[in-house]
């Protein structure tokens, strides 16, 4: 969910120049909230929070009416309600979001095969090869916005530019329900006027480091010697920010995205102090991670856990394996071992398991002795049972425990692997 509330929205005129453009960044506006309004029109115009477990959950999305009160993604629902007491809180319906996302992505593919999904609700499109059929990039963007609204009832914002970086910046400025075109000749002026925090890849810490040195806008970046940028950000980041500030972004639209990690996490209705319950939950999450890895034909070389204490202190630990794995038992054992190394002095609010450093699995190459052969057979049985009866129908005995009303609220769900 973007952090803007639409008050600084900038859009292009109908006759805006799109010379030198070819990249579209399409971003669905307040996607989860918009789907909830689509399914329940009585919510339209109201400050709406998509979350769960009132007071304990995390805001996954919010309508623009709620954002104007300061409601943001990842804050607790309790905090959001203190900022916006009149907000309506609805439980997320992720299956529904995935269904609508697939419809939207299919519409993108009607325009061009060069589509790069970034998440469940945004994508890059390269329309350079679609001009003869659909017209200029600006015309394509206008027609696509109308097509999305007509076919799904949802609203999107689009940035049109010569590079991915500028297109993404433009779509952010156009939200909600807008179109912003940045022509090639206008790139430099457009970038120079933006705050340094708008540069893709400049997070809060990097922005603070730059602003502490008086570097507050992209124009300031351009006027700053590289040596100063490197001291503030490191040589690699300094180089990247310097290039982006000059409009240099050679990245192409990649139709086959490689997942960098696969993870699941749970936020508890009540803080949990019982280590037995926590270990059981880690094993259950490990099985979910393993199932997604197997579905994608991937294995994880590194296993990581995240643990958030009652005071919101967050701990992370990871371990690189001798051999990559997609076996739930193996991932669970590593997760529990990492958990055992933590010094936990208070109850736990959230736990998560993630597989990182992913690589393709080669099922045809097996060691002479496969220590995980039995566990692989169990995973196959679990996969078969889940396919036939649903994910909650069968689980390992080791993952059972007193769950005390656990509730899942993914922070940034992605489309399932294709």
Radius of gyration: 23 Å
Low-confidence stretches: 364-369, 402-412
Beta-strand percentage?
Answer: 15-25%
Spatial arrangement of strands, main beta sheet? 5-6-1-7-8
Mind explaining what this structure looks like?
The protein has 418 residues and is of the alpha+beta class. The chain has 3 domains: 171 residues, Reverse transcriptase/Diguanylate cyclase domain (Alpha-Beta Plaits, 2-Layer Sandwich), CATH 3.30.70.270; 53 residues, Orthogonal Bundle (DNA polymerase, domain 1), CATH 1.10.150.20; 139 residues, DNA polymerase, Y-family, little finger domain (Dna Ligase, domain 1, 2-Layer Sandwich). The chain has a 5-stranded mixed beta sheet with strand order 5-6-1-7-8. Strands 9-12-10-11 form a 4-stranded antiparallel beta sheet. The protein has a 3-stranded mixed beta sheet with strand order 3-2-4. Helix 4 packs antiparallel against helix 6. It is globular, with a radius of gyration of 23 Å. 39% of the residues are buried. About 4% of the residues have low confidence.
SSE blueprint and pairings:
Blueprint: E1 23-28, H1 31-39, E2 48-50, E3 61-62, H2 64-67, H3 77-83, E4 88-90, H4 94-111, E5 115-119, E6 122-126, H5 131-134, H6 137-152, E7 156-161, H7 164-174, E8 179-181, H8 187-192, H9 204-211, H10 218-223, H11 226-233, H12 235-245, E9 261-272, H13 275-296, E10 298-309, E11 314-325, H14 328-340, E12 348-360, H15 373-389
Parallel strand pairs: 2-4, 7-8
Antiparallel strand pairs: 1-6, 1-7, 2-3, 5-6, 9-12, 10-11, 10-12
Helix pairs in contact: 4-6, 11-12, 13-14
């Amino acid at each position: 969910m973007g952090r803007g509330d639409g008050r600084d929205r900038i859009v292009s005129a109908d006759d805006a120049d799109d010379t030198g453009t070819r990249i579209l960044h399409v971003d669905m506006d307040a996607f989860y909230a918009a789907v909830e309004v689509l399914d329940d029109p009585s919510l339209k115009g109201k400050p709406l929070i998509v979350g769960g477990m009132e007071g304990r959950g995390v805001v996954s999305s919010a309508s623009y009416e709620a954002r104007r009160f300061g409601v943001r993604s990842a804050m607790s629902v309790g905090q959001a309600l203190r900022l916006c007491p009149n907000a309506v809180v609805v439980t997320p319906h992720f299956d529904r979001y995935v269904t609508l996302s697939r419809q939207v992505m299919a519409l993108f593919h009607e325009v061009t095969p060069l589509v790069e999904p970034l998440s469940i609700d945004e994508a890059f499109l390269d329309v350079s090869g679609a001009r003869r059929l659909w017209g200029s990039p600006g015309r394509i963007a206008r027609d696509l916005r109308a097509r999305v609204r007509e076919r799904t009832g949802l609203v999107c914002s689009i940035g049109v530019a010569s590079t991915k970086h500028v297109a993404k910046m433009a779509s952010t400025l156009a939200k909600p329900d807008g179109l912003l075109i940045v022509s090639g000749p206008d790139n430099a002026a457009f970038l120079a006027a933006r705050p340094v925090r708008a540069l893709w890849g400049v997070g809060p810490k990097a922005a603070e480091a730059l602003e502490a040195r008086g570097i507050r806008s992209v124009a300031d970046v351009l006027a700053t010697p590289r040596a100063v940028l490197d001291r503030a950000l490191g040589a690699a980041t300094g180089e990247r920010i310097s290039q982006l500030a000059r409009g240099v972004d050679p990245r192409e639209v990649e139709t086959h995205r490689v997942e960098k990690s696969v993870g699941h996490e749970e936020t508890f209705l009540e803080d949990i102090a019982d280590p037995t319950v926590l270990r059981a939950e880690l094993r259950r999450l490990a099985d979910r991670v393993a199932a997604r890895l197997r579905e994608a034909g991937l294995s994880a070389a590194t296993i990581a856990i995240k643990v958030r204490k009652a005071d919101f202190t967050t701990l992370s630990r990871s371990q690189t394996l001798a051999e990559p794995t997609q076996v739930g038992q193996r991932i669970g054992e590593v997760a529990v071992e990492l958990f055992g190394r933590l010094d936990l002095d208070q109850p736990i609010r959230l736990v998560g398991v993630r597989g990182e450093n992913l690589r393709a699995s080669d099922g045809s190459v097996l060691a002479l002795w496969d220590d995980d052969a039995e566990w692989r057979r169990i995973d196959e049985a679990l996969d078969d049972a889940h396919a036939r009866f649903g994910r909650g129908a069968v689980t390992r005995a080791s993952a059972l425990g007193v769950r005390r009303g656990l509730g899942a609220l993914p922070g940034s769900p992605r489309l399932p692997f294709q």
